[in-house]
Amino acid sequence: MSEKLKRIAVLTSGGDAPGMNAAIRAVVRASKYFGLEVFGINRGYHGLMFGDLKKLNTGDVANIIHRGGTILKTARSEEFKTKEGRTQAANMLKEHEIEGLIVIGGNGTYTGAMYLCEEHDIKVIGLPGTIDNDIYGTDFTIGFDTAINTAIEAVDRIRDTADSHNRLFFIEVMGRHSGYIALHTGIGSGASEIFIPEEDNSIEEFVEVLKKSSRRNKLFNLAIVAEGNQNGDANQIAAKVKSLYDKVDTRTAVIGHLQRGGSPTANDRILASRLGYQAVEALSNNKFNCALGIVDKNISYTPFNDAITIKKNLEQELIKMAEILSL
Ligand code: F6P
């Protein structure tokens, strides 16, 4: 039987996501309960390589559950992508006698975690922290719920001015490789069209929809554009639509990083707390080299390799439903 761990660490990496602080808090408080010492690593894998870490106690994570961003800061480290970088990071963990690591982030974070496990035998558990919701092995990622609520609130404000001026607005949301944010924002704000990377949206067909809607006196429209969609950014799509149908008065808005900040919603706080707690429990039971998630209300453990390589598909019925409801 393998020996019980004594000392673990936690880091956040990649794009920050609301709820990361709630997860850090849960990791620290659960560690106390399971009798583990816990260290916080600043600036993700970059900080790990350079030994930028400190011991965390219960008081260090007081009053952070409601805060967006991450108290541990984050980074996208190019050096850690090299073998040498990872060896430096693993040596740093060994030097500090840290036997287990909890990483909170997205796909890139998990890739680094898998290499640390495989190349250096470090016991790593991953928690899905990204607003994109594009991680296989969990229904929702930490930060997604807050991001779509923020985006819908922004769209509601734009709706007022779009309606007053009878305009067609193209509103760009985040999601380089995934249409989750756009699809859910689009459904929640009753958009006429949702441009997502997973679909080959036809601008010509959208123009026909606009013409029909103007005949039945629907004079303002909202279109949600995922940044990674196949037709270009919001400005490019707006220009193309205008060139095909010059009667419409178009405007664009890019929500951008606004949707990555702010106080996490109740759903994100609860998800993050649950996952943070379970991550410590998993490590203390010598479970590692996997990502945690919640699927159908139950905790799920997905090997890093699957979490990284299996594409989490958007629900086709939601795409179809969004289209039907928009007509
Ligand atoms: O992965 C999260 C994310 O917010 C994506 O939706 C977006 O494309 C990207 O990060 C932006 O990254 P950065 O803040 O580094 O520009």
Quick overview of this protein structure:
This protein is an alpha/beta fold. The protein has 11 helices and 11 strands. The protein folds into 2 domains: 183 residues, Rossmann fold; 117 residues, Phosphofructokinase domain (Rossmann fold, 3-Layer(aba) Sandwich).
Key terms for this structure?
Rossmann fold; seven-stranded mixed beta sheet; binds 6-O-phosphono-beta-D-fructofuranose; four-stranded parallel beta sheet; 327 residues; 11 strands; 2 domains; alpha/beta; 43% helix; single chain
Summarize the topology.
Blueprint: E1 7-12, H1 20-34, E2 37-41, H2 44-49, E3 53-55, H3 83-95, E4 100-105, H4 107-120, E5 123-128, H5 144-165, E6 168-173, H6 180-188, E7 193-195, H7 203-215, E8 221-226, H8 234-244, E9 250-254, H9 266-284, E10 290-295, E11 298-303, H10 304-309, H11 316-326
Parallel strand pairs: 1-2, 1-4, 4-5, 5-10, 6-8, 6-9, 7-8
Antiparallel strand pairs: 2-3, 10-11
Helix pairs in contact: 1-9, 5-6, 7-8
The chain binds 6-O-phosphono-beta-D-fructofuranose (F6P).
Task: Describe this structure as you would to a colleague.
- The protein is of the alpha/beta class.
- The protein is 43% helix and 18% strand.
- The chain is built from eleven helices and eleven strands.
- Strands 3-2-1-4-5-10-11 form a seven-stranded mixed β-sheet, with helices on both faces. It has a four-stranded parallel β-sheet with strand order 7-8-6-9, with helices on both faces.
- The termini are far apart.
- The structure holds 6-O-phosphono-beta-D-fructofuranose.
- Residues 15, 106, 130-132, 174-176, 227, 260 line the site of 6-O-phosphono-beta-D-fructofuranose.
- 6-O-phosphono-beta-D-fructofuranose is lined by residues 15, 106, 130-132, 174-176, 227, 260.
